[in-house]
Amino acid sequence: MEKVRQWSWVLGIIGMLALLFFLSDDGNLATVSVRRALRSATGSDTWYNNMLTKTNNLVVLNNGIVRLTFSHPGGDVIGIQYKGIDNLLEIKNHENNRGYWDVVWNNRETEGVDKLQGTRFKVITARADQIEISFIQTYDVSLGNATLSMNVDKRYIMQRGRAGFYAYSIFERPEGWPEVDIDQIRIVYKLQPDKFQFMVVSDDRQRIMPTAEDRENGIKLAYPEAVLLTNPSNPDLRGEVDDKYQYSTENKDNKVHGWICTNPVVGFWIIIPSDEFRTAGPFKHDLTSHVGPTALSAGKEVGMRFVEGEAWKKVFGPVFVYLNSVPTLNETILWENANEQVQ
Ligand SMILES: *[C@@H]1O[C@H](CO)[C@@H](O)[C@H](O)[C@H]1NC(C)=O
Ligand SMILES: *[C@@H]1O[C@H](CO)[C@@H](O)[C@H](O)[C@H]1NC(C)=O
């Protein structure tokens, strides 16, 4: 009798939640949920994932450790909340200029930088321990050569119990679309400059960095990226030259890099488990982190050229954004802990 009552209670809840998802505006979500609900009734899975909430303008993933806020349906990362810091990203920047993808492309008629704005949102998987979401930008054939002739599916994965998230994108073009050259594909995170001042790109390249303002106040040298710091906010840096190419790394060594905030002590790391997706090869030098504070995962000079009609599909990533924290400042501990995440 007790058992029967428990079961009817469980089925009642499942029914209610399934109904809720049916009423939501996302057909895909509904089918996933029902499948999960059926499996959970057999005891082999629990489908209910309470990491996701969604409104008209926002999608939020929260595993109790990290809270990620995305624009909807664009799919930019506009907020990363961690260890009492409401947003690790630069809140002064517009929402599409904090955590985003961009693609530099051209064809013989047009060129552009496409910041991959999704028009459709989908839940790919929603298990109790993991959720994967998708924001899709679709090419409109009627626009011909005027835009990037590629469909892009931006994916984000959050796992329960992990301080971070995965990001990757699926680029795809079927046969018959206009020609395009892709010069660069990047994932960019712009952090709060008041908080993140210490940068680590390798065991022997880690330091307190100048600010973007320090660069503006300095003197441009032989090329615009190299700036002599004449009046930096941190007087210790006066007379130094800042140049982001000082911090580039060969792809094969570019596995972990990032920034540290001293109060509270928080590390923000870009972890690249495999560099296979970087088409330029293992010895290609590429940018890592630099003044901003900016953390990048770049595929510069990816050199992909598609003739008219050529079909293609590629996954760019995954990149793991990892966050860590210790009670008292020790950059080495955070850096070593971030490196331990690379398996
Ligand atoms: C795109 O540009 C190329 C080169 O100018 C041209 O041959 C092609 O017809 C154009 N395609 C479309 C769909 O406009
Ligand atoms: C920071 O941690 C490292 C590694 O555990 C240790 O060797 C070092 O002494 C620590 N530094 C400080 C200032 O406590």
Summary of the model, kept short:
This protein is α+β, with helices and mostly antiparallel strands and 343 residues long. Helices cover 15% and strands 41% of the residues. The strands form 5 sheets. The chain has a 9-stranded antiparallel beta sheet with strand order 7-8-9-10-23-19-18-12-13.
Structure characterization notes:
By secondary structure, the chain is α+β, with helices and mostly antiparallel strands. The chain folds into two domains: 1-48, no CATH class; 49-340, Beta-galactosidase, Chain A, domain 5 (Distorted Sandwich). Helix content is 15%, strand content 41%. Strands 7-8-9-10-23-19-18-12-13 form a nine-stranded antiparallel β-sheet. Strands 6-5-11-22-21 form a five-stranded antiparallel β-sheet, with no helix packed on it. A hairpin with a 4-residue loop joins strand 9 (151-159) and strand 10 (164-173). It binds 2-acetamido-2-deoxy-beta-D-glucopyranose (2 copies). The site of one 2-acetamido-2-deoxy-beta-D-glucopyranose has 6 residues, from loops. Pfam families: Rhamnogal_lyase (PF06045). This is Rhamnogalacturonan lyase domain-containing protein. GO terms for molecular function: carbohydrate binding; catalytic activity. The chain crosses the membrane at residues 7-24.
Which structural class do the helices and strands define? alpha+beta
What would you say the CATH architecture of the largest domain is? Answer: Distorted Sandwich
Shape: globular
Mean pLDDT over the residues? 82
First-last Cα distance? 50 Å
Beta strand %: 35-45%
- Describe the largest sheet: 9 strands, antiparallel
Number of helical regions: 4
Strand order across the biggest sheet? Answer: 7-8-9-10-23-19-18-12-13
**Got a strand count?**
23
Low-confidence stretches: 1-5, 9-47
Q: Roughly what percent helix?
A: 10-25%
Number of domains: 2
Order of helices and strands: HHEEEEEEEEEEEEEHEEEEEEEEEEH
Radius of gyration (Å)? 22 Å
Bound molecules: 2-acetamido-2-deoxy-beta-D-glucopyranose
Q: Please write the CATH class name of the largest domain.
A: Mainly Beta
Quaternary structure classification: single chain
CATH fold type of the largest domain: Beta-galactosidase, Chain A, domain 5
